[in-house]
Amino acid sequence: MAVTTELLDCPAPAKLNLFLHVTGRRPDGYHLLQTAFRLLDWGDRLGFRLRADGRIRRVTEVPGVPPEDDLVVRAAHALRDWAGERRGVDILIDKHLPMGGGLGGGSSDAATTLLALNRLWGLHASRDALEALALPLGADVPFFVFGRSAFAEGVGERLTPLELPPRWYVVVAPGVSVPTAAIFGAKELTRNTKPIKIADFAMSATRNDLERVARARYPQIAAAIDWLGAIAPARMTGSGACLFSEFESERQARDVAGQCPAPWRAWAVRGLDRHPLFDWAG
Ligand SMILES: C[C@@](CO)(OP(=O)(O)O)[C@H](O)COP(=O)(O)OP(=O)(O)OC[C@H]1O[C@@H](n2ccc(N)nc2=O)[C@H](O)[C@@H]1O
Ligand SMILES: Nc1ncnc2c1ncn2[C@@H]1O[C@H](COP(=O)(O)OP(=O)(O)O)[C@@H](O)[C@H]1O
């Protein structure tokens, strides 16, 4: 029987890939990357309620994602098995981030689950231990546990903190959902960008290698990048479908977001330096 306790309400912020270079491919097919991750002050919200009976349940519907496939459920099982925890949890998801958007929504939901359950179950797992549990859930999940703007290498798990200036972003969703595996698997993807040094990172000197593939396959992405790019330099995040431009002021960002033509959607959002749950790893 479920125990009635308070709901632990937690944010799961989105990320942008400020650039993404594909530098190689591992024998198992995963790609070697260099990317700069930036957290955003915008995301999903998750609720966690302790259960004494040991069951892990997602209690809200997420269209297209059966509970057993949901990264929050998989994260909760991974942490419970690792810790030998006997209690369970009810998990509520309030989804705001477009799925298949390159904003890392599912990955961030999974990381927030690891951080929240570490606290709810009183496990005191270290950040390193949580990052190790995160990687098998998805290449982006360790970054959200790391919880700071980061330069990432490997498949995204080798993370170095990155100091970034305060910035606002316009994020545009062109109304399509992109399957990450199909973009990485494309024959035409170039996989030999020369590695850069972290100190050489600049928006103007980098690009997103996945963008050319996504543009060619999804005309809506190409059209949206061209629309935003006519106003300010615009780039795709991750494997798409969303794209973004960077601005120094909130006013500029809100002004541009307000011009976005339907049916595309646009948001003006602030870049974060730290994950709101940064202190929750032991
Ligand atoms: C492209 C990026 C950039 O941050 O983000 P998204 O666009 O998904 O948000 C990530 O590398 C995605 O990370 P994530 O979404 O966690 O991907 P995963 O579930 O691990 O992998 C999905 C599939 O993408 C391919 N994949 C993913 C990561 C990688 N470095 N090489 C790959 O080839 C693999 O085919 C894998 O089966
Ligand atoms: N909690 C979740 N939220 C969103 N997607 C999820 C979740 N759990 C599993 N998924 C799966 O992960 C896929 C990628 O979702 P998402 O992380 O939002 O996009 P992206 O990897 O492009 O940033 C979804 O299409 C869905 O099948």
> Which residue ranges are poorly predicted, with pLDDT under 50 across at least 5 consecutive positions?
none
Radius of gyration: 19 Å
CATH architectural designation: 2-Layer Sandwich
Output the structural class.
alpha+beta
Shape: globular
Instruction: Tell me the count of domains.
Output: 1
- CATH-assigned fold name: Ribosomal Protein S5, domain 2
H/E order of the elements? EEEHEHHHEEEHHHEEHE
Mean pLDDT value: 96
Q: Can you walk me through this structure?
A:
ATP binds at residues 98-108. Belongs to the GHMP kinase family. IspE subfamily. Residues 202-264 form the GHMP kinase C-terminal domain. Pfam families: GHMP_kinases_C, GHMP_kinases_N. This is 4-diphosphocytidyl-2-C-methyl-D-erythritol kinase. It is a single chain. By secondary structure, the chain is an alpha+beta fold. It has one domain: Ribosomal Protein S5, domain 2. The protein is 26% helix and 28% strand. It contains eight helices and ten strands. Strands 1, 2, 3, 4, 5, 6, 7, 8, 9 and 10 form a ten-stranded mixed β-sheet that branches. A hairpin with a 4-residue loop joins strand 5 and strand 6. Helix 1 packs parallel to helix 2 (105-120) and helix 6 crosses helix 7 (219-229). The longest helix has 16 residues, at 105-120. The chain is globular. The two termini are 30 Å apart. The model has no long low-confidence stretch (mean pLDDT 96). 4-diphosphocytidyl-2-C-methyl-D-erythritol 2-phosphate (SUD) binds next to strand 1, strand 2 and helix 5.
